[in-house]
Amino acid sequence: MMERSRLVNSFKNQVNGLVGIIVLLTVHMAVPVDAQVKQVEELTYLPLPELVIPEPERVVLENGMVVLFLEDHELPLVNLSAFIRTGSRLESQDKIGIASLTGTVLRTGGTAKQSGDALDEFLEGKAAMIETNIGETEGNASMSCLTEDFPEVLAVFSDILRTPAFAPEKLQIAKNQMMAGISRQNDDPGDILSREFKKLIYGKSSPYTWVPTYATILSITPNDIANWHATYFHPNRITLGLVGDFQKDQAIALLNKVFGDWPKGPEVKDAHVFIQEKTPAGVFYVEKNDMTQAKIAMGYQGIRRDHPDYYSLVIVNQILSGSFGARLFSNVRSKQGLAYDVHGGVGLQWDYPGMAILSMSTKTQTTGRGIDALISESRNMVSNPPTEGEVADAKASILNSFVFSVDSPSKVLGKYLTYEYYGYPSTWLKTFRHGIEQVTVAQVRDAAKRHLRPEDFAILVVGPREGTKPALTRYKTIQELDIRIPDPPAGT
Hints:
The termini are far apart. Helix 11 runs antiparallel to helix 12 (367-383). The chain is an alpha/beta fold and 492 residues long. 35% of the residues are buried. It contains 17 helices and 14 strands.
């Protein structure tokens, strides 16, 4: 009983203390009614602190490897990223898929010193991570570890880049996975839409549109993978980015230790990547009868980010589709109720033209209205050009969200790595906000007029024949696209 009484009294004392604190806070926080604002416009805010973006240090090793350093001692972690000058756009047509396979087996296939399974055990024991992949325009390798394990994990990272084993059994697993993906490539209508639309934009002869087949995957041998690696993996084709808890001088010494004796590769200019000059205008159709909706895309080639209209088009894209209050969402989604997802804008790539594309999903019976709505909104950006208010709101949204793209050293370093890899000036990040701020309403309107031309659109519809037929019969010419998956070679 004594113990229970003591606990009850203690609880009462805590409650009384909390009540006292609440009363004090209420007294101090109370504001006279006359001092409270009555309109949101009367609210005042303290000025935001100046956004300070750290800039990494750049060092070039004797073998040509570029390294960007950005120290961050908040946590005892080190992260390393590598950009390798390669990509699936450099593939030959008879070996489509070799880049992706190389990127996968680079990590899973082990090294000259230890197997892929042994690597897994080593990294698990260190709570570390190493990943590799090769995409369309670049190869990537990354590692993360505790500061104390950095020298040991870095040595393994170096082995993976320099002396991969490409174990045949791991290559076979990766090939099986890719072939399973080929068998399912027509399951998702969204995947069909993006894949086939890309072919319309860049042309079927462009490596940007190639997809692996059973034949190309089956033809790839361990020797092919090794040759791909030998062609593109050289220190002077690699940019490293190091961020985290390290001392720069010590890090340089470690990098020289594991990469310094890697000889510089030949200065070779990669082959030109073909892109057709102009997207053919017209209406294109893919039959997919297991759908209850139609998917629509329309557009043509966009621009590179070094185009003079870049900043203006960032604002155009924001007005068109950058928020739930943007024109496409407001007019096509909310007012007309034609689509749950609708998007549009002029694509902005780093070293080749992006895709200017407007897209949506809609009920099959509203396919025609959906096409008309997208075309109408594109025309409307010219006939009813962006207002001063729309431009001001778009700028504010872009500039206010900018801080979230640079709110960690890792994000900042990632941007600088991209600029270094694609040959953009290191000042690109710091000039972005100024570039947006300086764009005029007239420049936004002119950019919209130049880059949104619905009369030149290629229009692609994916959907069931019966449901979309009424919408498509109004066109004199419709080109049907064949998406059948080629059979595996005989005897495989």
